[in-house]
Backbone:
């Protein structure tokens, strides 16, 4: 038991040290989004999840949603990873998970539950090799979002071989088999984390997940398409919003 506690302490100490040089940015400018779309392309191409394209860029219609936060994770001012977040509170709010997992998403929204849908988690290869802790560094943003948005459910759409990590590290439960998913060649499965009373659990297990209201507001007060969260929260039937 003593050795386990010591290892957890060492891991937390390493994480705190790395986080001194980490910045989470919500991409709001053309240049910020362009760099993230290129990182997505490189990551998915490397793992065989998409075919090459001349633009060397990867995005989809959900990057244009009013309720999207496209997050860049920067280490020492370099883009190391990215993850995209959608928050949904109404049955017709736009979230990517509905494309393949409508049978899971729609009953939860119809019953009044809110959903956080993190997608497009990608990492720079060099940073992945230099920082084995990068999955925890990147996924910390989901825990910050959980505190800020206070969803009832947090989803994870992941490949089957990644399910064990999400279950072991965060307590996610699998909800589906693997299904075709949004322009990717490899199928993804859907997992779910019930967010009720999880803030204290994660702050005790992973002290480096703790954040300040200032940090959360800086990231989440304005979405990637320059819509304030107050406006997003007031919108209904976002799925019917025209996209240009």
Residues:
């Amino acid at each position: 038991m003593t050795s386990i506690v010591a290892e957890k302490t060492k891991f937390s100490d390493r994480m705190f040290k790395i986080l001194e040089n980490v910045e989470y940015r919500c991409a709001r400018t053309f240049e910020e989004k362009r760099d993230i779309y290129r990182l997505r392309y490189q990551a998915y191409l490397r793992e065989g999840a998409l075919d090459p394209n001349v633009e060397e860029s990867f995005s989809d219609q959900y990057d244009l949603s009013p309720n999207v936060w496209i997050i860049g994770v920067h280490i020492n001012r370099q883009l190391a990873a990215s993850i995209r977040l959608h928050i949904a509170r109404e049955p017709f709010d736009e979230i990517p998970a509905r494309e393949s997992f409508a049978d899971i998403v729609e009953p939860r929204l119809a019953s009044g539950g809110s959903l956080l849908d993190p997608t497009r988690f990608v990492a720079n290869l060099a940073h992945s090799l230099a920082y084995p802790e990068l999955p925890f560094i990147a996924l910390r943003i989901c825990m910050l979002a959980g505190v800020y948005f206070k969803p009832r459910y947090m989803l994870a759409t992941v490949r089957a071989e990644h399910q064990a990590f999400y279950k072991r590290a965060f307590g996610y439960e699998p909800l589906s088999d693997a299904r075709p998913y949004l322009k990717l060649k490899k199928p993804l499965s859907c997992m779910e984390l019930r967010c009720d009373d999880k803030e204290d659990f994660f702050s005790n297990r992973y002290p480096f997940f703790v954040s300040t209201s200032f940090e959360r507001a800086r990231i989440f007060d304005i979405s990637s398409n320059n819509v304030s969260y107050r406006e997003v929260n007031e919108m209904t039937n976002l799925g019917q919003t025209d996209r240009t």
Notes: Strands lie at 22-26, 68-75, 78-88, 115-123, 153-158, 173-174, 179-181, 184-194. Confidence is low (pLDDT under 50) at residues 236-244. The first helix runs from residue 2 to 19. The radius of gyration is 17 Å.
